[in-house]
Specification:
199 residues, alpha+beta, Nuclear Transport Factor 2, Chain: A, 2 domains, 4-stranded antiparallel sheet, two-stranded antiparallel sheet, elongated, DUF3828 domain-containing protein, DUF3828
Length: 199
Amino acid sequence: MVILGCQISNGKPYILGQHIAMRNQSIKFTGIRNGYKILTLCVFTFFPFWAYAQSTTPAQEVLEFYQKYMITCDHMFSNGAEKKRDGLFCNMDIEKYITKELHKKIISAYKSGTYSNLTGDRNYFTHTQDFDARWASFMSVTEIMADRNNSVIRLLMNFPKGAGEPLAVCVRLHRESSVWKIYEVDPSLYNDLPDCKYK
């Protein structure tokens, strides 16, 4: 506390320097405290997004995509919605989940009339002909192989009783920057429960 001078106001002694010094300290203290509050707010606001972006595994990405895809396709087809330009992908933002090359491959096969050769008269991603939103809760994933930039995930669909036999799909992903994207789903061929260890 610094005392610079004395002033009498209304008959009471008043130390001007003391008031100024104390006022400056309170301003500085308030400024620091508000700075900490703002910093804390920023950390708690942006950290969850950063942590989510950094910690999403290929298995989580596959499960998220397939659950969303199954629910969206079921909703689209059960409402009798017309297929629009992107109806092949159930009007989803598919490019968030698959590579540009795979997107072009599927579109090209569809336009040229060779889609059934690519998929075996089934859906490319699910290897089914039907969709049911309830199936999304019966999906589980296992990482079969992984390295720094590639991963193979086995998606198992254990359908509810009476809806069919279990079905597995081998999903291959590639890392683009910090995001995992599907670049291929192995064809079903003759095995509905592949182990995904070999291509």
